[in-house]
């Protein structure tokens, strides 16, 4: 206020004060800094002075300087210090402002100097580039002659090499033609490969007549060699007749080496002719009209090929190269011929096929295929001469030791719960012959249908003859033995059928399994459940009230309770084992047919048997308590004069529960969850009924309510 000149009037003074306040507000707005800028300033110029803080408060600062009234005594000293500080700050600001007056001019001068330096640098770079281009041109002129010499050397070397190859090719073709005429196959085999390799270097020169002529001579020699070798094999192994040479010929052995370097069709034709001639005797011995051709003598077919393989190894083992796998090729061709012949004769004599005969033939055939897998690698099944049969799908069957034959009579039902074993290696020969039996497996399926029907009938007869199971005093309920027998037979059938086929026959067998699982549930389990009794309703109230300790109302006998528990335990076992059976069937069947295997309906059937069994037990115990509850509602509660011991109906209910529940508990010890279900269902049935009868006890006195 000391700096503001005195105003001539109060209005002008007020106006100047308003302008001064607006100036202060504008100054504060201009001096507002963002938190980031303020933080950066504090890092560059750290200060402990309160005046330098962004959140400076003048009132707080003054209160700090003058905390009490007594401190106002030195106010002049404080004011002088602040004025001195302001004067120094003004001097610093003035010095800085004056120092910045020449900055613009200095910056323009520095920019001009930088532009001049850039121009000089550009001129030097251009000069260096021009000198480099001149140097490069000079180097090209110097090395042009050297490059010409290098090209000449390379062309000369190529020409010499080509001429040497041409000389080798011309000489080789002449020698090849001469050796072919003299049937010197041993020398031809080595020479032919060399000539073919040399000829490959002349593919880009085929436009030259002389080169093209040599190439045509080589092809002609190859064709002539192929025809000549085939003629030699035809002469040695004629198609007509079964006479064979005494042993391997050195000429034919060398001819096979030549065939290795000729067109692959020559090799295939040799193999085809030899295998056909080698199996010609087999086709005659086992014609369709011969007695040995039928299934009961199928062993003779496999014995014949074994003898032929031994004979081949002795006479011709060294004639063919080892990489031709002739023993395996003969065997594979024998398998294909056998499959075709067996399929033909079984179609003709389909009515004569019996189950035992069919299983015998399949067992012998699968054993033979297993023997082939041990003897041969199956590598020839991949080439174009023979067609590879369908390989079995990967199996995780835990009973691989049982799949080498069909005798599974000693297996137990517990095997279904064994852990899985490592998967056996695939047999490349699986199904190469046995595939022909698949169209006739309906005979096996029909046989299993009849056998299972007889088995179910036998189970029914045995149950009627032996009667219900005896009360169980041991830990756990008694599972009907017929259940284990059924699933043992199922496992045997499943293993047998999976060895025969993993296709549609497995689906047909699954349908048979489903049929007899349902029949077992209906005829053996549900069909033998005791019928609920209703005779307890005929008892009078007076007789119930007068019954003595230990008396019983009409209900299931102990034997009937044990039977219901046994059927419940059997149904639980069937439910769990049916689920395992479904998993094993899916492992055995082809992947494309897995979705068609579903035993959920049969598992639901066994679940229904379990529910019905529990319901019977609940109804029996519940019905035994009905007369007591009726007696409770009929008692004259308004006439009760004093509270005594428990009423007779309470004694009756406790008696029935103590008689029934321990028996059920002991016989369901192995299936505790179903005993728990029985208890819960009984409580859910009894308590509402008990409460309902309580409401019928009217009229009732206070003493009667206490009783």
Automatic annotation (TrEMBL):
Residues 111-152 form a coiled coil. GO terms for cellular component: cytosol; GARP complex. InterPro entries: Vps53 (IPR039766), Vps53_N (IPR007234). Residues 55-463 form the Vps53 N-terminal domain. GO terms for biological process: retrograde transport, endosome to Golgi. Pfam families: Vps53_N. Gene3D superfamilies: Methyl-accepting chemotaxis protein. It comes from the Eukaryota. Residues 385-425 are annotated as: Disordered. Residues 409-419 have a biased composition (Basic and acidic residues). Keywords: Coiled coil. This is Vps53 N-terminal domain-containing protein. It comes from Scyliorhinus torazame (Cloudy catshark).
């Amino acid at each position: 206020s000391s700096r503001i000149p005195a105003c001539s009037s109060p209005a002008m003074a007020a106006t100047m004060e308003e302008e001064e306040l607006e100036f202060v507000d504008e100054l504060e707005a201009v001096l507002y800094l963002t938190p980031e800028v303020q933080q950066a300033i504090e890092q560059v110029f750290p200060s402990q002075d309160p005046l330098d803080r962004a959140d400076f408060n003048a009132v707080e600062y003054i209160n700090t300087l003058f905390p009490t009234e007594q401190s106002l005594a030195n106010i002049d000293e404080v004011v002088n210090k602040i004025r001195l500080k302001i004067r120094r700050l003004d001097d610093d600001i003035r010095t800085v402002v004056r120092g910045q007056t020449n900055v613009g001019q200095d910056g323009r001068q520095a920019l001009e100097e930088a532009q001049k330096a850039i121009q000089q640098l550009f001129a030097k770079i251009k000069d260096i580039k021009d000198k480099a281009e001149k140097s490069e041109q000079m180097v090209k002129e110097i090395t042009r002659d050297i490059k010409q010499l290098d090209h000449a050397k390379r062309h000369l070397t190529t020409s010499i090499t080509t001429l040497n190859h041409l000389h080798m090719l011309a000489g080789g073709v002449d020698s090849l033609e001469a050796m072919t005429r003299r049937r010197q196959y041993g020398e031809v085999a080595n020479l032919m490969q060399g000539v073919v390799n040399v000829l490959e270097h002349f593919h880009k020169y085929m436009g030259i007549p002389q080169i093209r002529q040599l190439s045509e001579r080589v092809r002609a020699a190859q064709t002539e060699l192929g025809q000549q070798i085939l003629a030699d094999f035809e002469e040695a192994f004629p198609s007509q007749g079964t006479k064979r040479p005494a042993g391997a010929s050195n000429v034919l052995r060398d001819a096979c080496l030549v065939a290795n370097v000729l067109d692959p069709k020559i090799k295939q034709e040799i193999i085809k002719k030899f295998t056909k001639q080698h199996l010609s005797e087999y086709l005659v011995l086992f014609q369709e009209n011969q007695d040995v051709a039928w299934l009961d003598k199928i062993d003779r077919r496999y014995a014949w090929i074994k003898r032929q393989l031994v004979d081949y190894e002795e006479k011709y083992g060294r004639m063919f190269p080892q990489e031709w796998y002739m023993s395996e090729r003969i065997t594979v061709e024998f398998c294909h011929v056998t499959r075709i012949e067996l399929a033909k004769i079984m179609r003709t004599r389909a009515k004569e096929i019996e189950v035992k005969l069919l299983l015998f033939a399949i067992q012998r055939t699968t054993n033979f295929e297993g023997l082939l897998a041990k003897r041969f690698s199956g590598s020839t099944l991949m080439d174009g001469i023979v067609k590879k049969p369908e390989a079995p799908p990967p199996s995780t069957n835990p009973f691989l030791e049982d799949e080498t034959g069909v005798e599974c009579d000693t297996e137990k039902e517990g095997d279904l719960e064994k852990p899985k074993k490592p998967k056996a290696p695939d047999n490349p020969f699986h199904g190469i012959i046995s595939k022909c039996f698949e169209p006739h497996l309906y005979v096996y399926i029909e046989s299993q249908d009849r056998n299972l029907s007889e088995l179910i009938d036998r189970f029914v007869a045995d149950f009627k003859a032996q009667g219900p199971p005896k009360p169980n005093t041991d830990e756990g309920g008694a599972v009907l033995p017929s259940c284990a027998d059924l699933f043992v037979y199922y496992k045997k059938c499943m293993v047998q059928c999976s060895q025969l086929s993993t296709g549609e026959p497995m689906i047909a067998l699954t349908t048979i399994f489903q049929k007899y699982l349902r029949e077992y549930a209906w005829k053996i389990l549900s069909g033998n459940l005791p019928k609920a009794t209703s005779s307890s309703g005929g008892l009078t109230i007076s007789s119930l009230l007068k019954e003595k300790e230990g008396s019983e109302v009409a209900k299931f006998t102990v034997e009937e309770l044990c039977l219901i528990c046994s059927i419940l335990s059997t149904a639980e076992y069937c439910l769990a084992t049916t689920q395992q059976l479904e998993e094993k069937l899916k492992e055995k069947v082809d992947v494309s047919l897995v979705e068609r295997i579903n035993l959920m309906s049969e598992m639901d059937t066994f679940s229904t048997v379990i529910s019905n069994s529990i319901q019977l037990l609940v109804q029996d115990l519940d019905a035994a308590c009905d007369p007591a509850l009726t007696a409770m509602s009929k008692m004259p509660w308004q006439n009760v004069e004093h509270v005594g011991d428990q009423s007779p109906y309470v004694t009756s209910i406790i008696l029935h529960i103590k008689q029934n529940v321990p028996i059920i508990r002991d016989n369901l010890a192995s299936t505790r969850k179903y005993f728990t279900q029985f208890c819960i269902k009984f409580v859910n049935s009894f308590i509402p009924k008990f409460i309902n009868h309580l409401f019928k006890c009217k009229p009732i006195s206070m003493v009667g309510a206490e009783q």
